[in-house]
Amino acid sequence: MNAVVATLPANVTLTQRLSGLGTGQRMRLAIGAVIAVAIVIAGIVMGGSPDWRVLYANLADKDGGAIIAQLSQMNIPYKHADGGSAILVPADKVHDTRLRLASQGLPKGSVTGFEMMESNRFGMTQFQERLTFQRGLEGELTRSIQALSSVQSARVHLALPNQNGFFREQQKPSASVLVSLYPARSLDRAQIAGIVHLVASSVAELSPSAVSVLDDTGKLLSTPADGSGDARGVDAEQLQYTQNIEQSFTRRILDILEPIVGKGNARAQVTADIDFSQTESTSESHRPNQTPDSSAIRSQQLVETGAGAGGAAGPSGVPGAVTNQPPGNATAPINGPAQTLAAAGAAGVGGQGATGAAGKRESIINYEVDKTVRVVRGGTGQVRRLSAAVVVNHQAGKDADGKLTSVALTADQIEKMTALVRETIGFNKERGDSVNLMNAPFAIDKQVEEILPLWRQPEMQDLARSLAWPIGTVLLVALVLLGLVRPGLKAMARPVAHDAAAAGDGQGQEGGQLDALVADSTERPPLLAHSAQAVLPGPTEAELRLEGARKLARENPVAVANIVKGWMGSEAPA
To answer: In whole angstroms, what is the distance from residue 148 CA to residue 187 CA?
Structure first.
Protein backbone atom coordinates (compact mmCIF):
# COMPACT_ATOMS: atom_id res chain seq x y z
CA MET A 1 0.00 0.00 0.00
CA ASN A 2 1.73 3.19 -1.31
CA ALA A 3 -0.60 5.94 -0.02
CA VAL A 4 -2.59 6.79 3.02
CA VAL A 5 -5.75 8.90 3.21
CA ALA A 6 -5.95 11.37 6.13
CA THR A 7 -8.82 13.67 6.94
CA LEU A 8 -9.25 16.50 9.36
CA PRO A 9 -11.45 15.90 12.39
CA ALA A 10 -14.77 17.54 11.84
CA ASN A 11 -15.41 18.29 15.53
CA VAL A 12 -12.43 20.71 15.81
CA THR A 13 -13.57 24.31 15.39
CA LEU A 14 -11.58 27.26 13.96
CA THR A 15 -11.26 28.83 17.40
CA GLN A 16 -9.74 25.63 18.79
CA ARG A 17 -7.26 25.47 15.92
CA LEU A 18 -6.29 29.15 16.41
CA SER A 19 -5.85 28.56 20.11
CA GLY A 20 -3.59 25.66 19.29
CA LEU A 21 -1.23 27.95 17.38
CA GLY A 22 1.67 29.72 18.95
CA THR A 23 1.78 33.47 19.54
CA GLY A 24 4.18 34.09 16.65
CA GLN A 25 2.08 32.00 14.28
CA ARG A 26 -1.10 33.84 15.18
CA MET A 27 0.60 37.23 14.68
CA ARG A 28 1.98 36.23 11.28
CA LEU A 29 -1.42 34.95 10.23
CA ALA A 30 -3.18 38.16 11.31
CA ILE A 31 -0.59 40.47 9.73
CA GLY A 32 -0.65 38.52 6.47
CA ALA A 33 -4.43 38.65 6.28
CA VAL A 34 -4.47 42.41 6.93
CA ILE A 35 -1.76 43.09 4.35
CA ALA A 36 -3.50 40.94 1.75
CA VAL A 37 -6.81 42.72 2.27
CA ALA A 38 -5.08 46.14 2.14
CA ILE A 39 -3.31 45.29 -1.09
CA VAL A 40 -6.52 44.07 -2.71
CA ILE A 41 -8.41 47.21 -1.64
CA ALA A 42 -5.59 49.50 -2.83
CA GLY A 43 -5.49 47.71 -6.16
CA ILE A 44 -9.22 48.12 -6.61
CA VAL A 45 -9.11 51.81 -5.67
CA MET A 46 -6.02 52.72 -7.70
CA GLY A 47 -6.98 50.60 -10.66
CA GLY A 48 -10.44 52.09 -10.80
CA SER A 49 -9.37 55.77 -10.33
CA PRO A 50 -10.64 58.00 -13.16
CA ASP A 51 -8.47 59.78 -15.71
CA TRP A 52 -8.43 63.42 -14.62
CA ARG A 53 -8.63 66.27 -17.12
CA VAL A 54 -8.50 70.04 -16.68
CA LEU A 55 -11.96 71.57 -16.49
CA TYR A 56 -10.86 75.20 -16.10
CA ALA A 57 -7.45 76.78 -15.63
CA ASN A 58 -6.28 80.20 -14.43
CA LEU A 59 -9.43 80.71 -12.42
CA ALA A 60 -9.95 83.56 -10.03
CA ASP A 61 -10.71 82.67 -6.43
CA LYS A 62 -14.28 83.90 -6.73
CA ASP A 63 -15.00 81.82 -9.82
CA GLY A 64 -13.21 78.79 -8.36
CA GLY A 65 -15.37 78.83 -5.25
CA ALA A 66 -18.59 79.11 -7.25
CA ILE A 67 -17.56 76.25 -9.58
CA ILE A 68 -16.61 73.96 -6.69
CA ALA A 69 -19.94 74.64 -5.03
CA GLN A 70 -21.78 73.65 -8.19
CA LEU A 71 -19.66 70.52 -8.66
CA SER A 72 -20.50 69.44 -5.13
CA GLN A 73 -24.19 69.90 -5.80
CA MET A 74 -23.91 67.88 -9.03
CA ASN A 75 -21.98 65.08 -7.22
CA ILE A 76 -19.07 65.33 -9.63
CA PRO A 77 -15.63 64.48 -8.18
CA TYR A 78 -12.95 67.12 -8.61
CA LYS A 79 -9.36 67.88 -7.71
CA HIS A 80 -7.26 71.02 -7.40
CA ALA A 81 -4.07 71.74 -9.30
CA ASP A 82 -1.62 74.63 -9.83
CA GLY A 83 -2.22 76.04 -6.40
CA GLY A 84 -5.99 76.01 -6.72
CA SER A 85 -6.12 77.95 -10.01
CA ALA A 86 -7.05 74.81 -11.98
CA ILE A 87 -9.88 72.35 -11.37
CA LEU A 88 -9.72 68.76 -12.64
CA VAL A 89 -12.65 66.40 -13.20
CA PRO A 90 -12.90 62.89 -14.71
CA ALA A 91 -12.13 62.87 -18.41
CA ASP A 92 -15.52 61.45 -19.40
CA LYS A 93 -17.33 64.33 -17.67
CA VAL A 94 -15.34 67.33 -18.88
CA HIS A 95 -17.56 68.45 -21.76
CA ASP A 96 -20.83 67.70 -20.01
CA THR A 97 -19.71 69.59 -16.91
CA ARG A 98 -18.62 72.62 -18.93
CA LEU A 99 -21.97 72.83 -20.69
CA ARG A 100 -23.88 72.50 -17.42
CA LEU A 101 -21.76 75.18 -15.75
CA ALA A 102 -22.06 77.46 -18.78
CA SER A 103 -25.85 77.25 -18.53
CA GLN A 104 -25.48 78.71 -15.03
CA GLY A 105 -23.15 81.49 -16.20
CA LEU A 106 -19.94 80.01 -14.82
CA PRO A 107 -17.19 80.96 -14.89
CA LYS A 108 -18.08 84.63 -14.87
CA GLY A 109 -14.48 85.71 -15.23
CA SER A 110 -12.49 88.04 -13.05
CA VAL A 111 -13.04 90.94 -15.44
CA THR A 112 -16.09 93.07 -14.79
CA GLY A 113 -17.63 95.08 -17.60
CA PHE A 114 -20.64 97.32 -17.91
CA GLU A 115 -22.59 95.15 -15.49
CA MET A 116 -21.11 97.22 -12.69
CA MET A 117 -23.28 100.07 -13.97
CA GLU A 118 -26.31 98.13 -12.83
CA SER A 119 -25.33 98.50 -9.18
CA ASN A 120 -25.15 102.28 -9.08
CA ARG A 121 -25.91 103.65 -5.67
CA PHE A 122 -28.20 106.57 -5.05
CA GLY A 123 -26.32 109.76 -4.45
CA MET A 124 -23.24 108.97 -6.53
CA THR A 125 -21.22 111.99 -7.54
CA GLN A 126 -20.38 112.81 -11.13
CA PHE A 127 -16.80 111.77 -10.56
CA GLN A 128 -17.89 108.36 -9.27
CA GLU A 129 -20.18 107.84 -12.24
CA ARG A 130 -17.41 108.75 -14.67
CA LEU A 131 -14.97 106.45 -12.89
CA THR A 132 -17.48 103.56 -12.94
CA PHE A 133 -18.05 104.05 -16.65
CA GLN A 134 -14.29 104.08 -17.28
CA ARG A 135 -13.79 100.86 -15.32
CA GLY A 136 -16.67 99.21 -17.16
CA LEU A 137 -15.24 100.26 -20.53
CA GLU A 138 -11.82 98.91 -19.57
CA GLY A 139 -13.41 95.60 -18.59
CA GLU A 140 -15.31 95.30 -21.87
CA LEU A 141 -12.17 96.03 -23.89
CA THR A 142 -10.26 93.45 -21.83
CA ARG A 143 -12.87 90.81 -22.61
CA SER A 144 -12.72 91.62 -26.31
CA ILE A 145 -8.92 91.38 -26.42
CA GLN A 146 -8.91 88.11 -24.46
CA ALA A 147 -11.17 86.63 -27.13
CA LEU A 148 -8.12 86.40 -29.42
CA SER A 149 -6.76 82.88 -29.62
CA SER A 150 -3.17 83.91 -28.84
CA VAL A 151 -3.99 86.11 -25.84
CA GLN A 152 -4.11 84.41 -22.46
CA SER A 153 -4.94 87.50 -20.43
CA ALA A 154 -5.05 91.24 -20.99
CA ARG A 155 -5.35 94.48 -19.09
CA VAL A 156 -6.48 97.84 -20.45
CA HIS A 157 -5.79 101.27 -18.96
CA LEU A 158 -7.65 104.32 -20.22
CA ALA A 159 -6.66 107.90 -19.54
CA LEU A 160 -9.83 109.90 -20.15
CA PRO A 161 -9.32 113.60 -19.39
CA ASN A 162 -12.18 115.71 -18.08
CA GLN A 163 -13.53 117.71 -21.00
CA ASN A 164 -14.21 121.35 -20.14
CA GLY A 165 -15.60 123.90 -22.55
CA PHE A 166 -13.64 126.74 -20.90
CA PHE A 167 -10.32 125.32 -22.06
CA ARG A 168 -9.06 126.51 -25.41
CA GLU A 169 -7.06 123.32 -26.03
CA GLN A 170 -8.71 120.11 -24.88
CA GLN A 171 -6.56 117.24 -23.65
CA LYS A 172 -6.63 114.13 -25.81
CA PRO A 173 -7.36 110.67 -24.32
CA SER A 174 -4.82 107.88 -24.42
CA ALA A 175 -4.78 104.15 -23.71
CA SER A 176 -2.33 101.35 -22.96
CA VAL A 177 -2.87 97.61 -23.33
CA LEU A 178 -0.86 94.88 -21.61
CA VAL A 179 -1.27 91.40 -23.11
CA SER A 180 0.00 88.07 -21.83
CA LEU A 181 0.32 85.46 -24.58
CA TYR A 182 0.13 81.70 -24.44
CA PRO A 183 3.46 79.86 -24.62
CA ALA A 184 4.92 79.50 -28.12
CA ARG A 185 2.43 82.03 -29.57
CA SER A 186 2.83 85.56 -30.87
CA LEU A 187 0.86 88.40 -32.41
CA ASP A 188 1.54 89.47 -35.98
CA ARG A 189 1.41 93.05 -37.21
CA ALA A 190 -2.18 92.75 -38.39
CA GLN A 191 -3.38 91.50 -35.00
CA ILE A 192 -1.54 94.29 -33.17
CA ALA A 193 -3.05 96.87 -35.50
CA GLY A 194 -6.46 95.30 -34.88
CA ILE A 195 -6.06 95.69 -31.10
CA VAL A 196 -4.99 99.32 -31.53
CA HIS A 197 -7.96 100.18 -33.72
CA LEU A 198 -10.34 98.25 -31.46
CA VAL A 199 -9.36 100.40 -28.49
CA ALA A 200 -9.25 103.62 -30.52
CA SER A 201 -12.69 103.01 -31.98
CA SER A 202 -14.20 102.33 -28.57
CA VAL A 203 -13.15 105.62 -26.97
CA ALA A 204 -14.30 108.97 -28.26
CA GLU A 205 -11.62 111.30 -29.63
CA LEU A 206 -8.95 108.62 -29.16
CA SER A 207 -6.35 108.48 -31.91
CA PRO A 208 -4.73 105.14 -32.84
CA SER A 209 -1.34 106.77 -32.40
CA ALA A 210 -2.17 107.32 -28.71
CA VAL A 211 -2.66 103.58 -28.05
CA SER A 212 0.31 101.53 -26.80
CA VAL A 213 0.36 97.73 -26.78
CA LEU A 214 2.94 95.86 -24.65
CA ASP A 215 3.50 92.19 -23.91
CA ASP A 216 4.24 90.63 -20.54
CA THR A 217 8.00 91.06 -21.09
CA GLY A 218 7.66 94.84 -21.43
CA LYS A 219 8.28 94.87 -25.18
CA LEU A 220 6.42 97.53 -27.14
CA LEU A 221 4.41 95.77 -29.85
CA SER A 222 2.64 98.74 -31.41
CA THR A 223 4.35 101.37 -33.56
CA PRO A 224 5.46 104.40 -31.49
CA ALA A 225 3.59 107.63 -32.05
CA ASP A 226 6.76 109.41 -33.19
CA GLY A 227 7.42 106.72 -35.80
CA SER A 228 10.90 106.03 -34.48
CA GLY A 229 10.57 102.27 -34.97
CA ASP A 230 13.64 100.14 -34.44
CA ALA A 231 16.81 101.75 -33.18
CA ARG A 232 18.57 100.48 -36.32
CA GLY A 233 16.00 102.14 -38.57
CA VAL A 234 14.62 98.79 -39.71
CA ASP A 235 10.91 98.20 -39.62
CA ALA A 236 9.54 94.75 -38.92
CA GLU A 237 7.11 95.14 -41.81
CA GLN A 238 10.00 95.89 -44.16
CA LEU A 239 11.87 92.79 -43.01
CA GLN A 240 8.76 90.69 -43.46
CA TYR A 241 8.22 92.15 -46.93
CA THR A 242 11.81 91.36 -47.93
CA GLN A 243 11.49 87.78 -46.69
CA ASN A 244 8.23 87.34 -48.60
CA ILE A 245 9.89 88.56 -51.80
CA GLU A 246 12.83 86.18 -51.36
CA GLN A 247 10.60 83.22 -50.55
CA SER A 248 8.39 83.96 -53.53
CA PHE A 249 11.33 83.92 -55.95
CA THR A 250 12.72 80.77 -54.31
CA ARG A 251 9.42 78.94 -54.79
CA ARG A 252 9.30 80.04 -58.43
CA ILE A 253 12.76 78.62 -59.09
CA LEU A 254 11.96 75.29 -57.44
CA ASP A 255 8.62 75.04 -59.24
CA ILE A 256 10.36 75.41 -62.61
CA LEU A 257 13.31 73.09 -61.90
CA GLU A 258 11.84 70.21 -59.88
CA PRO A 259 9.74 68.84 -62.78
CA ILE A 260 13.01 68.54 -64.72
CA VAL A 261 15.50 67.24 -62.11
CA GLY A 262 13.02 65.60 -59.73
CA LYS A 263 11.55 66.62 -56.42
CA GLY A 264 14.20 67.25 -53.80
CA ASN A 265 17.05 67.41 -56.33
CA ALA A 266 17.27 71.20 -56.40
CA ARG A 267 18.02 73.82 -53.77
CA ALA A 268 17.68 77.56 -54.27
CA GLN A 269 18.26 80.73 -52.29
CA VAL A 270 17.42 84.25 -53.41
CA THR A 271 18.68 87.47 -51.84
CA ALA A 272 16.73 90.63 -52.61
CA ASP A 273 17.92 94.20 -52.13
CA ILE A 274 14.77 96.26 -51.59
CA ASP A 275 14.64 100.04 -51.72
CA PHE A 276 12.22 101.38 -49.12
CA SER A 277 13.09 105.05 -49.61
CA GLN A 278 10.30 107.44 -50.60
CA THR A 279 10.97 110.01 -53.34
CA GLU A 280 8.86 112.83 -54.70
CA SER A 281 9.71 115.08 -57.70
CA THR A 282 7.89 118.15 -59.08
CA SER A 283 8.42 119.53 -62.60
CA GLU A 284 6.90 122.62 -64.28
CA SER A 285 7.02 123.18 -68.06
CA HIS A 286 5.84 126.11 -70.25
CA ARG A 287 4.83 125.98 -73.91
CA PRO A 288 5.54 128.80 -76.39
CA ASN A 289 3.01 131.69 -76.58
CA GLN A 290 0.04 131.04 -78.79
CA THR A 291 -1.81 133.43 -81.11
CA PRO A 292 -4.41 135.72 -79.51
CA ASP A 293 -7.23 133.82 -81.14
CA SER A 294 -6.17 130.46 -79.62
CA SER A 295 -5.10 131.75 -76.19
CA ALA A 296 -7.30 132.01 -73.12
CA ILE A 297 -7.82 135.57 -71.79
CA ARG A 298 -6.97 135.88 -68.11
CA SER A 299 -7.84 139.61 -67.69
CA GLN A 300 -8.68 142.60 -69.93
CA GLN A 301 -8.49 146.41 -69.31
CA LEU A 302 -9.89 149.18 -71.60
CA VAL A 303 -8.69 152.80 -71.26
CA GLU A 304 -10.14 155.75 -73.30
CA THR A 305 -8.73 159.29 -73.10
CA GLY A 306 -9.56 162.54 -75.02
CA ALA A 307 -8.05 166.12 -75.23
CA GLY A 308 -9.38 169.50 -76.74
CA ALA A 309 -7.53 172.46 -78.22
CA GLY A 310 -6.91 173.90 -74.81
CA GLY A 311 -5.60 170.67 -73.66
CA ALA A 312 -8.84 169.53 -72.08
CA ALA A 313 -11.17 167.09 -73.62
CA GLY A 314 -14.90 167.72 -73.46
CA PRO A 315 -18.05 168.23 -75.47
CA SER A 316 -18.28 171.07 -77.99
CA GLY A 317 -21.04 172.94 -79.84
CA VAL A 318 -24.13 174.87 -78.86
CA PRO A 319 -25.44 173.81 -75.50
CA GLY A 320 -28.65 171.94 -75.66
CA ALA A 321 -30.18 168.54 -76.19
CA VAL A 322 -28.41 167.96 -79.42
CA THR A 323 -25.00 168.55 -78.04
CA ASN A 324 -25.64 166.20 -75.13
CA GLN A 325 -26.00 163.14 -77.35
CA PRO A 326 -23.39 160.36 -76.84
CA PRO A 327 -20.84 159.79 -79.52
CA GLY A 328 -21.40 157.18 -82.18
CA ASN A 329 -20.32 153.54 -81.99
CA ALA A 330 -16.68 152.82 -82.48
CA THR A 331 -15.78 151.24 -85.77
CA ALA A 332 -12.23 150.18 -84.92
CA PRO A 333 -11.52 146.77 -83.19
CA ILE A 334 -10.73 146.63 -79.50
CA ASN A 335 -7.08 146.00 -80.00
CA GLY A 336 -6.85 148.11 -83.15
CA PRO A 337 -5.13 151.48 -83.57
CA ALA A 338 -6.30 154.48 -81.54
CA GLN A 339 -8.88 156.67 -83.25
CA THR A 340 -9.32 160.32 -82.61
CA LEU A 341 -12.51 161.37 -81.00
CA ALA A 342 -12.87 164.57 -83.01
CA ALA A 343 -14.74 163.04 -85.89
CA ALA A 344 -17.03 161.12 -83.61
CA GLY A 345 -17.79 164.19 -81.55
CA ALA A 346 -18.37 166.32 -84.63
CA ALA A 347 -20.76 163.80 -86.08
CA GLY A 348 -22.65 163.64 -82.82
CA VAL A 349 -23.24 167.36 -82.67
CA GLY A 350 -23.90 167.96 -86.32
CA GLY A 351 -20.42 169.14 -87.17
CA GLN A 352 -20.33 171.91 -84.57
CA GLY A 353 -17.55 170.45 -82.35
CA ALA A 354 -14.15 171.93 -81.87
CA THR A 355 -11.75 171.05 -84.64
CA GLY A 356 -8.74 170.79 -82.36
CA ALA A 357 -10.11 168.09 -80.09
CA ALA A 358 -8.19 164.74 -80.07
CA GLY A 359 -8.43 161.40 -78.06
CA LYS A 360 -7.08 157.82 -77.76
CA ARG A 361 -8.32 154.37 -76.73
CA GLU A 362 -6.11 151.72 -75.07
CA SER A 363 -6.89 148.04 -74.41
CA ILE A 364 -4.72 145.82 -72.08
CA ILE A 365 -5.30 142.04 -72.30
CA ASN A 366 -3.52 139.42 -70.13
CA TYR A 367 -3.43 135.88 -71.52
CA GLU A 368 -3.02 132.66 -69.46
CA VAL A 369 0.45 131.15 -69.49
CA ASP A 370 0.40 127.57 -70.81
CA LYS A 371 2.37 125.57 -68.21
CA THR A 372 2.38 121.95 -66.90
CA VAL A 373 3.17 120.97 -63.29
CA ARG A 374 4.04 117.29 -62.79
CA VAL A 375 4.44 115.67 -59.32
CA VAL A 376 5.92 112.16 -59.21
CA ARG A 377 6.02 110.11 -56.00
CA GLY A 378 8.22 107.03 -56.11
CA GLY A 379 6.72 103.86 -54.68
CA THR A 380 8.41 102.05 -51.77
CA GLY A 381 9.57 98.46 -51.86
CA GLN A 382 11.22 98.57 -55.26
CA VAL A 383 13.67 95.77 -56.06
CA ARG A 384 17.13 97.21 -56.58
CA ARG A 385 19.01 93.95 -57.08
CA LEU A 386 18.43 90.19 -57.06
CA SER A 387 20.98 87.45 -56.44
CA ALA A 388 20.02 83.80 -56.96
CA ALA A 389 22.07 80.71 -56.05
CA VAL A 390 20.87 77.32 -57.30
CA VAL A 391 22.34 73.86 -56.70
CA VAL A 392 21.13 70.90 -58.79
CA ASN A 393 21.86 67.29 -57.86
CA HIS A 394 23.49 64.84 -60.25
CA GLN A 395 21.08 62.79 -62.29
CA ALA A 396 20.67 59.05 -61.74
CA GLY A 397 22.15 56.89 -64.48
CA LYS A 398 23.72 53.50 -65.20
CA ASP A 399 27.33 52.63 -65.87
CA ALA A 400 28.69 50.08 -68.30
CA ASP A 401 27.89 47.24 -65.89
CA GLY A 402 24.28 48.37 -65.51
CA LYS A 403 24.70 49.61 -61.96
CA LEU A 404 23.01 52.78 -60.77
CA THR A 405 25.32 55.76 -60.54
CA SER A 406 25.13 59.56 -60.52
CA VAL A 407 25.75 61.44 -63.75
CA ALA A 408 26.68 65.12 -63.92
CA LEU A 409 24.71 67.50 -66.08
CA THR A 410 26.17 68.65 -69.35
CA ALA A 411 27.18 72.23 -70.00
CA ASP A 412 24.24 72.66 -72.35
CA GLN A 413 21.79 71.49 -69.70
CA ILE A 414 23.30 73.83 -67.11
CA GLU A 415 23.05 76.75 -69.53
CA LYS A 416 19.41 76.01 -70.27
CA MET A 417 18.54 75.74 -66.60
CA THR A 418 20.37 79.00 -65.91
CA ALA A 419 18.30 80.69 -68.61
CA LEU A 420 15.12 79.31 -67.06
CA VAL A 421 16.09 80.69 -63.65
CA ARG A 422 16.86 84.10 -65.16
CA GLU A 423 13.47 84.28 -66.84
CA THR A 424 11.76 83.10 -63.67
CA ILE A 425 13.12 85.89 -61.46
CA GLY A 426 12.91 88.61 -64.12
CA PHE A 427 16.67 88.98 -64.57
CA ASN A 428 17.76 92.56 -65.24
CA LYS A 429 21.39 93.07 -66.12
CA GLU A 430 21.21 96.84 -65.82
CA ARG A 431 20.37 96.74 -62.13
CA GLY A 432 23.14 94.20 -61.43
CA ASP A 433 21.18 90.93 -60.99
CA SER A 434 23.22 87.73 -60.78
CA VAL A 435 22.35 84.03 -61.14
CA ASN A 436 24.73 81.19 -60.27
CA LEU A 437 23.68 77.59 -60.97
CA MET A 438 25.95 74.73 -59.92
CA ASN A 439 25.64 71.01 -60.49
CA ALA A 440 26.96 68.87 -57.62
CA PRO A 441 26.04 65.53 -55.99
CA PHE A 442 24.01 65.82 -52.84
CA ALA A 443 25.43 64.24 -49.70
CA ILE A 444 22.55 62.17 -48.39
CA ASP A 445 22.97 60.91 -44.86
CA LYS A 446 21.77 57.35 -44.61
CA GLN A 447 20.03 57.03 -41.34
CA VAL A 448 20.50 53.62 -39.83
CA GLU A 449 17.28 52.51 -38.27
CA GLU A 450 17.95 51.31 -34.77
CA ILE A 451 16.12 48.10 -34.01
CA LEU A 452 14.82 48.49 -30.53
CA PRO A 453 14.47 45.42 -28.37
CA LEU A 454 10.99 44.27 -27.58
CA TRP A 455 11.03 45.61 -24.06
CA ARG A 456 12.03 49.13 -25.28
CA GLN A 457 9.36 49.47 -27.93
CA PRO A 458 6.71 52.10 -27.08
CA GLU A 459 3.82 49.69 -27.57
CA MET A 460 5.27 47.17 -25.16
CA GLN A 461 6.09 49.89 -22.63
CA ASP A 462 2.51 51.14 -22.74
CA LEU A 463 1.23 47.60 -22.29
CA ALA A 464 3.60 47.02 -19.38
CA ARG A 465 2.47 50.25 -17.69
CA SER A 466 -1.16 49.25 -18.01
CA LEU A 467 -0.54 45.73 -16.62
CA ALA A 468 2.08 46.63 -14.03
CA TRP A 469 -0.36 47.54 -11.26
CA PRO A 470 -2.70 44.54 -11.49
CA ILE A 471 0.18 42.07 -11.90
CA GLY A 472 2.10 43.67 -9.05
CA THR A 473 -0.98 43.52 -6.84
CA VAL A 474 -1.44 39.82 -7.56
CA LEU A 475 2.22 39.07 -6.85
CA LEU A 476 2.16 40.97 -3.57
CA VAL A 477 -0.96 39.15 -2.46
CA ALA A 478 0.61 35.83 -3.43
CA LEU A 479 3.78 36.61 -1.50
CA VAL A 480 1.81 37.59 1.56
CA LEU A 481 -0.32 34.45 1.36
CA LEU A 482 2.67 32.15 0.85
CA GLY A 483 4.95 33.86 3.37
CA LEU A 484 2.57 34.67 6.21
CA VAL A 485 -0.84 33.08 5.80
CA ARG A 486 0.15 29.65 4.48
CA PRO A 487 2.35 28.68 7.46
CA GLY A 488 -0.50 29.56 9.80
CA LEU A 489 -2.96 27.49 7.79
CA LYS A 490 -0.56 24.56 7.80
CA ALA A 491 -0.26 24.82 11.55
CA MET A 492 -4.05 24.89 11.87
CA ALA A 493 -4.36 21.76 9.74
CA ARG A 494 -2.18 19.62 12.05
CA PRO A 495 -4.06 16.91 14.08
CA VAL A 496 -4.09 17.40 17.83
CA ALA A 497 -2.86 14.39 19.86
CA HIS A 498 -5.27 14.77 22.74
CA ASP A 499 -8.21 14.74 20.31
CA ALA A 500 -7.26 11.28 19.14
CA ALA A 501 -6.74 10.07 22.71
CA ALA A 502 -10.20 11.27 23.73
CA ALA A 503 -11.93 9.57 20.80
CA GLY A 504 -13.38 6.91 23.12
CA ASP A 505 -12.68 3.90 25.27
CA GLY A 506 -11.16 0.82 23.75
CA GLN A 507 -8.25 2.46 22.01
CA GLY A 508 -5.83 1.86 24.92
CA GLN A 509 -2.29 1.30 24.21
CA GLU A 510 -2.78 0.75 20.49
CA GLY A 511 -4.10 4.30 20.03
CA GLY A 512 -1.11 5.72 21.83
CA GLN A 513 1.22 3.69 19.68
CA LEU A 514 -0.54 4.87 16.48
CA ASP A 515 -0.43 8.50 17.57
CA ALA A 516 3.23 8.16 18.38
CA LEU A 517 3.89 6.80 14.93
CA VAL A 518 2.08 9.52 12.97
CA ALA A 519 2.20 12.57 15.30
CA ASP A 520 5.51 13.98 14.04
CA SER A 521 4.47 16.90 11.85
CA THR A 522 7.93 17.69 10.65
CA GLU A 523 8.41 14.44 8.77
CA ARG A 524 4.96 13.42 7.62
CA PRO A 525 3.15 15.18 4.76
CA PRO A 526 0.40 17.67 5.78
CA LEU A 527 -3.17 16.49 5.87
CA LEU A 528 -5.15 17.65 2.89
CA ALA A 529 -8.81 18.28 2.40
CA HIS A 530 -11.43 15.57 2.54
CA SER A 531 -10.84 12.86 -0.08
CA ALA A 532 -7.30 14.17 -0.79
CA GLN A 533 -4.39 11.74 -0.93
CA ALA A 534 -0.77 12.27 0.09
CA VAL A 535 1.83 10.08 -1.60
CA LEU A 536 4.62 9.25 0.86
CA PRO A 537 8.19 9.50 -0.26
CA GLY A 538 10.70 6.68 -0.49
CA PRO A 539 12.32 4.77 2.33
CA THR A 540 12.53 7.36 5.02
CA GLU A 541 11.98 7.35 8.74
CA ALA A 542 8.38 8.44 8.27
CA GLU A 543 7.80 5.51 5.93
CA LEU A 544 9.17 3.11 8.53
CA ARG A 545 6.79 4.52 11.12
CA LEU A 546 3.94 4.22 8.67
CA GLU A 547 4.82 0.62 8.09
CA GLY A 548 4.65 0.07 11.86
CA ALA A 549 1.17 1.64 11.88
CA ARG A 550 0.07 -0.71 9.15
CA LYS A 551 1.36 -3.67 11.07
CA LEU A 552 -0.56 -2.50 14.15
CA ALA A 553 -3.69 -2.11 12.04
CA ARG A 554 -3.36 -5.69 10.80
CA GLU A 555 -2.91 -7.05 14.28
CA ASN A 556 -5.62 -4.98 16.01
CA PRO A 557 -7.96 -3.49 13.39
CA VAL A 558 -10.70 -2.64 15.91
CA ALA A 559 -8.51 -0.22 17.85
CA VAL A 560 -7.30 1.49 14.66
CA ALA A 561 -10.88 1.85 13.45
CA ASN A 562 -11.89 3.49 16.71
CA ILE A 563 -9.02 5.96 16.44
CA VAL A 564 -9.94 6.91 12.88
CA LYS A 565 -13.57 7.33 13.87
CA GLY A 566 -12.46 9.62 16.68
CA TRP A 567 -10.57 11.75 14.15
CA MET A 568 -13.60 11.95 11.95
CA GLY A 569 -15.83 12.90 14.89
CA SER A 570 -18.07 9.83 14.66
CA GLU A 571 -19.06 7.47 17.52
CA ALA A 572 -17.81 3.86 17.84
CA PRO A 573 -20.30 1.11 16.97
CA ALA A 574 -22.15 -0.44 19.87
So the answer is: 10
